[in-house]
Design a protein that fits this description.
The mean pLDDT is 87. The chain has seven helices and no strands. Helix content is 52%, strand content 0%. It has 126 residues and is mainly α. The protein has a single domain, classed as Transferase(Phosphotransferase), domain 1, CATH 1.10.510.
Length: 126
């Protein structure tokens, strides 16, 4: 394995992958950017890998209430365990959440929580 275990696509773990593993990483980065924590977490690399293989990102953090269904759908599609079902980069760029981006009022309290989550994650070495 190469890189941080938080970003590794399931197919990389099986050492059988192509460019679609990068789309998985885009999903992870988008998830983290929106809520401040990784979608697949654990105390050890083994726990993180097990969560990645299960492929069920959670959307229970309070911040997710302010994220559109389209935004969550974008992430879910990128974090699809089966790379054949995962969108290509072109398909991802054509997703409704990307094509219909509009400026929305940002909830400052939620953004402070996201920043706090990112800071705590960074301090813990994740």
């Amino acid at each position: 394995m190469v890189g941080s275990s938080y970003y590794i696509a399931p197919e990389v773990l099986a050492r059988n992958y192509n460019y679609k593993c990068d789309l998985w990483s885009v999903g992870v980065i988008t998830y983290i950017a929106l809520c401040g924590v990784p979608p697949f977490n654990g105390s050890t690399d083994q726990e993180i890998v097990a969560a990645i293989r299960a492929g069920k990102p959670g959307f229970s953090e309070p911040v997710w209430k302010s994220i559109s269904d389209s935004g969550k759908d974008f992430i879910k599609k990128l974090l699809t365990v089966d790379p054949d079902q995962r969108p290509s980069a072109k398909e991802a760029l054509l997703h409704k959440w990307i094509t219909e981006i509009k400026l929305e009022k940002v909830d400052k309290k939620e953004m402070k929580n996201v920043l706090a989550n990112m800071t705590a994650t960074a301090k813990n070495g994740n």
